[in-house]
Amino acid sequence: MHGSPPLRHLLPLGLLIAAGFVLPQFLPEYFLYIANTLMVYLILAIGLDILLGWSGQFAFAHIAFYGIGIYGTALLNMRLGVPFVLGMPLAAAAAAAIGFLIAIPATRLRAVYLALATFAFAECAQWVYRTWDSVTKGPDGLRISAPDIFGYVVGTDKRALPVIAIILALVLAATLYLGRSKLGRSLCAIRDSEHVAAASGIDVKRTKVIAFTISAFYAGVAGGTYTLFQSFIHPDGLGVWTLVLVLSMIVVGGSGTLPGVVLGVVLLGLLPEALRAAPRGLLVWQEFAYGLILTLAIMFMPRGIWGLFNRRTRARRKPALSVEAPAPARALQHQSP
Amino acid sequence: MSTIFSIRDVTVRFGGLLALNRFSMDVAQGAIHALIGPNGAGKSTVFNCVSRFCTPVSGDIVFDGKSLIALPPHGVVALGIARTFQNIEQLYRMTVLENVLVGLTSRAPLYFPFGPGAARARAERQAVADAEEVLAQTGLLPYRDMLAGNLDFGHQKLLDLSRALAAKPRLLLLDEPAAGLRNREISHVDAILVDLARRRGITIVLVEHVMQLVMSVADTVTVLSFGEKIAEGVPAAIRSDANVIEAYLGREATHA
Amino acid sequence: MTLVLQGVASGIVTGCVYALVALSLVIVYKSTDVVNFAGGELVMLGGYFGLFFLIYADLAYPIMFVLVPVAIFVAGALFDRITLAKVSGRTFVKHVDLVPLVVATIGLSYLLKGGVRVVPYTEEVRRLPPIFTGPPLFFDDIVLQVQDIAIIGVTTLIMVALWVFFRFTLLGKALRATSQNARAAALVGIPVKTMRMAVWGLSASIAGIAGVMLAPKLLMTPDMGSVVMLAFAAAIIGGFSSLPGCVVGGIMLGIVQNLVGIFLSPQAIAVTPFFVIMLVLLLRPQGLFGETIALKKV
To answer: Could you tell me if the ipTM is greater than 0.85?
Structure first.
């Protein structure tokens, strides 16, 4: 959690971008759609993990910011002609700004109340998306016209994939750098012990607000990215179920760790497709399946699947080195006084 | 030696409970000053006031001429005051090195966290070097990459101390540094404290129950009972003070 | 004017249902610090169990009314014993994390909702017959169903019973002791694990009764559990640690909802509980009767 991400962590991002250009050439459209969906979920999940897993803020407003990203980017494009390269960052910034605003009162609250207050906010947001039909077309859903990036029209999964891959690579790189930075350490410190954090000079309240803002920005980016390959958005997709889905991805994969979140997104993102493809069409079992997986995961693998293998989280026996303190005579080796 | 740290007439109430009653204490620069008293006397409350985790209803706390009573909790370390915790609140998910890196947050410069940069590289390099230096001094360098949560108790206490030292404090508040340690480990702490105060001029205030450490290391001892100061002086005088003995009567308090 | 009075009257009735569910949430929160996000699904389960016992198994209403709380009690106790005990058994160093426990209740909620949804029996939307059928009652121009009176009666009864239970019975005191200091309770011989199971069972059965009372007023679907947000709002208004607060909060919420529907728009009814939650937590987090511990230090 210090220094900079080593090259071996950054190299796969280059592969990701390369894959983004190569895969659409020979994979069927359906797989490309899945890939795009998973990548958007990944951005969303990482954003939630920064708030939940890294900083330990039990807050559920994430979905609202996702919605701001989607509607913001789409409407800026369709109503005001703002191109995607400008519209997406703007929408994400708007999401971040609102995240910042609600964080200020929200972070005063203790865990449970924080969860309820932010959940209520998310529900309010969904209600706004549903009833503000002059803007969002409410229950009919909004048809999104294909954005274009400097002339490159991104309407289909095939054409969107490389762009999404690039966006994801940037997000992953930023996350890797954040995790090894002073801010990243501060974010994690406030989860483990607010007292130690404060005694070390970390402004706990401000750090929490920063965590919210970053998390909301990620959600906004995920929303903007959504408009690249989806042609339709309905408020029903911006509610509790999506939130619980993303939460499950984090919990099952391994919250607080990037590989864990990736694992969780892939596994739980593919689950509905697996259910859909099953002989008797088991999609109706979706809720039950997720409920069961979430419950079992939190019972038996609270650190997620990745936590089972991760060197860092495996509880070990006492260290092999001696438990004796060093001899008093050499108690303190110091350099210059 | 001049007084560098001064608690003046501090009164703390928790609901109806009077935790500290017009408590005053002056600490000389470079001294090792022990604060003792039976359980519930209010010792941790004193520390929590200084760390600004609780607020007195009256009184003031002054360090190096600056009052800290109105500071937020994260502002105290900037004045040069660091503390350890009685119940070892650890950053248990982070490694030993990372714990100390957090300890030097107040001294480390800011930089753009989401990408590479010269400022970042410089700052991180310096931070790691500083952290390793502190770990070397407390003997924890071999455990550098071990998870804090996996350390045994004695080493966790050393880590807590290392984290506090990383902030390069001029005043160190130690909350029961010897609690739960074995004799050999207590001697180690003893030596560290003496070194910090005598060689490096750090002023130390420690709350402690382990009399072995208090008697051997403290210059001045202040005794608290039920939120009030009942005695103050050199260790030998305190040991035979009638009020102190009465406050501790019936307790197996002494180790040595 | 009659419209307003009618709104108030119906609001009191629905408010009682919210209050019951809120009681269920607060009981478990006070005892274990866990927020039960599955509260709504336990209500839904109560409704469906009632349907099952009454229609499918063709039992008499009074029998169903007794069986349902018992069945849901068992469900709640089992959930604690199997799932929650396992989850809270995992502590990293000394750190007790409430988050996994709450996540477990989220898991339970989807397990129950999804589980009920796949049972073929629930494919059609159904209705649970009310306890007392009969002509509606008229007070001046205000109409109330007999069922509504029953709801108010049952709620009052349960609240009084709970108050007596926690105050005066040995078991109730033991439960309070467990919630205040589990270690101390264990030291004086109170079986903490069993106590927690009992609390979950009790909380669940109250939710189940609420389900049986609520179901006749709605069309039953597996999504009935969304009433939980109203219960949360009621509990928050009352101050999450106060039992009478739940009832006051519930009734206030029920009335406010109806008034919002009359004076603003029917559309706004859906968002009222969420708005209320945010407002209360912003302005007065401890609610009406709660202790001021909603805010953090540091």
So the answer is: yes
